[in-house]
Amino acid sequence: MKPAVVEAATTLLSDMNAATSSLTYAALLTDDGFDVARFPVKTDGARFAGMASSMQALSDAVTHELSIGDSEYIIIASGKGHVVQLRVPGKELVLSALFDNDATVGHALAIARSFAQRMADLLA
Amino acid sequence: MAEHVILFTGPMGAGKTTAIQSLSEIEVVRTEATNTERHVVDKATTTVALDYGEIVIGADEKVRLYGIPGQKRFSFMWTILKKRAKGMVLLVNSDAPDPIAEMVFFLEEFRELYDRGGVVIGVTRADVAEGPSLGDYFDALERTNPGLVIPVFTVDPRERDQMENLLLALVVNIEMRAAFGMATVAGSA
């Protein structure tokens, strides 16, 4: 991944955190499971990047199996927060973000969608 | 109907997805992503979660075929998938920098599948690269895992007949060990 892309993605994830205090972790990764950027920066994103790419591929496989079009997003709800994940439109990149329960799922999804689109615009 | 769950393991580029594609009687569930490591293995896509296929052998034995992603960064999937398997087809590509080391690594990672059922090894791409001989693989097995009896074959994962033979060797091995409580059943290459 080009350093300029990594730098832009890192800045974008920081902006995402500034937009909502409920964001506790965010990662941008390649479709084949490589960490590109993350927030907070000083975390080891390699293992999570692999997991997130597997989830993305499995969601694509499920939507294909059920003939319901393309997978738009994935939500994992838990007692302490929710993970929202979606592909950066038109790119082989995935944005995955963890929000605490102060954010509603709808708000978290709106934020994630907005920043995925901003990432796509940056790379256009 | 008797059922077996078999795991296809081995490094990226060994032919796991192709082997399951050759064997499966249903549309294979694939989880492919664009490969950004073309400098490591020159292929367009790579498995990032699992492959899944099914085949019925004999009168009524269904074999569920699961393929792992070959890269270590997906080892969490190895942990998930190995829990449900009773046997392993370990594929190693002869044109890898050190296929014997790959074989030893994956056998160690998935050793519980030998203890639980059985293992066969398929050496792929032996027709395109002069790698180690089958004797070299047996020697390495004896050196690193003395006492284990594991058949080793050269196979082309694109060839259904060859993959069926490999799979049958594994299933027979698993069933004999289950039936007779034998620690090992001799196989041959």
CATH architecture of chain A: 2-Layer Sandwich
The geometry of chain A reads as: globular
Q: Can you tell me the CATH superfamily of chain B?
A: P-loop containing nucleotide triphosphate hydrolases
Rg of chain A (CA only) = 14 Å
Strands of the largest sheet of chain B, in order across it?
Answer: 4-5-1-6-7-8
User: What CATH architecture label of chain B applies?
Assistant: 3-Layer(aba) Sandwich
Count of structural domains of chain B? 1
Biggest chain pair interface? A-B, 20 and 19 residues
Radius of gyration of chain B: 15 Å
Low-confidence stretches of chain B: 185-189
Q: In whole angstroms, how far apart are the ends of chain B? A: 30 Å
Protein architecture, described:
The complex is a heterodimer of chains A (about 120) and B (about 190). Chain A starts with a helix and ends with a helix. Chain A is an alpha+beta fold and about 120 residues long. Chain A is globular and about 40 Å long. In chain A, about 45% of the residues lie in helices and about 25% in strands. A 5-stranded antiparallel β-sheet of chain A has the order 2-1-5-4-3, with helices on both faces. Chain A has a single domain (about 5-125), classed as Beta-Lactamase (2-Layer Sandwich), CATH 3.30.450. Chain B has about 190 residues and is of the alpha/beta class. In chain B, about 35% of the residues lie in helices and about 25% in strands. Chain B has one domain (about 1-180): P-loop containing nucleotide triphosphate hydrolases (Rossmann fold, 3-Layer(aba) Sandwich), CATH 3.40.50. In chain B, a hairpin with a 3-residue loop joins strand 4 and strand 5. In chain B, the strands form 2 sheets. A 6-stranded mixed β-sheet of chain B has the order 4-5-1-6-7-8, sandwiched between helices. A two-stranded antiparallel ribbon of chain B has the order 2-3. The longest helix of chain B has 21 residues, at about 160-180. In chain B, about 45% of the residues are buried. Chain B has 6 helices and 8 strands.
